[in-house]
């Protein structure tokens, strides 16, 4: 069993025990086939949505997931399941494999960040250390950084300004310098311990009753995982194999 599937199995056991509902996104329908078979064998019996699912079946799957407590996993292809559906019954998103275009993954995450969502949402992104996925995530991150710089410099402001400040070549070059050692530092090649997994899955810091004096804050990274984005928008877990 590969490291990502092994970690997914551990995640789902704990998420089901805590009565969370989960969306799992993958780029490839072949990977969805594997996950569908594996999860069915484990007794999870997931719903599924990809480009080959008929419209009437799609609507029934969405209705079942949103209304039936026993249905807690929904498998979706990132492109087909990333737009036009509302799955606010879910409070957890797992990106099993990432897209070169970071906005595709962000659209997928938004399936449960919709009007009607009443619970904090956590996002976990699985990635394999020392593989093409590390480079893919670096490129996607640089795209988002470059976009932020362009917007910050005023190129997308609606108000009238005397003169727009151009994005300097040095700014772009600095952003696109890929530091491979940083990737290895963030995602250390080892298993995530049960203790760390429990801490990453913990959502008590997002509740009103949270007492920071009794529970130390989650660090930004640990062996096999890293928090990419914290706060109310959730966090991202990177797994390594």
TrEMBL record:
<dbReference type="InterPro" id="IPR050520">
    <property type="entry name" value="INO80/SWR1_helicase"/>
</dbReference>
<keyword id="KW-0227">DNA damage</keyword>
<keyword id="KW-0547">Nucleotide-binding</keyword>
<dbReference type="GO" id="GO:0005524">
    <property type="term" value="F:ATP binding"/>
</dbReference>
<protein>
    <recommendedName>
        <fullName>Chromatin-remodeling ATPase INO80</fullName>
        <ecNumber>3.6.4.-</ecNumber>
    </recommendedName>
</protein>
<dbReference type="GO" id="GO:0016887">
    <property type="term" value="F:ATP hydrolysis activity"/>
</dbReference>
<dbReference type="GO" id="GO:0003677">
    <property type="term" value="F:DNA binding"/>
</dbReference>
<keyword id="KW-0378">Hydrolase</keyword>
<keyword id="KW-0067">ATP-binding</keyword>
<dbReference type="InterPro" id="IPR049730">
    <property type="entry name" value="SNF2/RAD54-like_C"/>
</dbReference>
<dbReference type="Pfam" id="PF00271">
    <property type="entry name" value="Helicase_C"/>
</dbReference>
<keyword id="KW-0234">DNA repair</keyword>
<dbReference type="InterPro" id="IPR027417">
    <property type="entry name" value="P-loop_NTPase"/>
</dbReference>
<dbReference type="GO" id="GO:0042393">
    <property type="term" value="F:histone binding"/>
</dbReference>
<dbReference type="InterPro" id="IPR001650">
    <property type="entry name" value="Helicase_C-like"/>
</dbReference>
<comment type="function">
    <text>ATPase component of the INO80 complex which remodels chromatin by shifting nucleosomes and is involved in DNA repair.</text>
</comment>
<feature type="region of interest" description="Disordered">
    <location>
        <begin position="208"/>
        <end position="241"/>
    </location>
</feature>
<feature type="domain" description="Helicase C-terminal">
    <location>
        <begin position="7"/>
        <end position="168"/>
    </location>
</feature>
<dbReference type="GO" id="GO:0006338">
    <property type="term" value="P:chromatin remodeling"/>
</dbReference>
<comment type="similarity">
    <text>Belongs to the SNF2/RAD54 helicase family.</text>
</comment>
<comment type="subunit">
    <text>Component of the INO80 chromatin-remodeling complex.</text>
</comment>
<keyword id="KW-0238">DNA-binding</keyword>
<dbReference type="GO" id="GO:0006281">
    <property type="term" value="P:DNA repair"/>
</dbReference>
<dbReference type="GO" id="GO:0031011">
    <property type="term" value="C:Ino80 complex"/>
</dbReference>
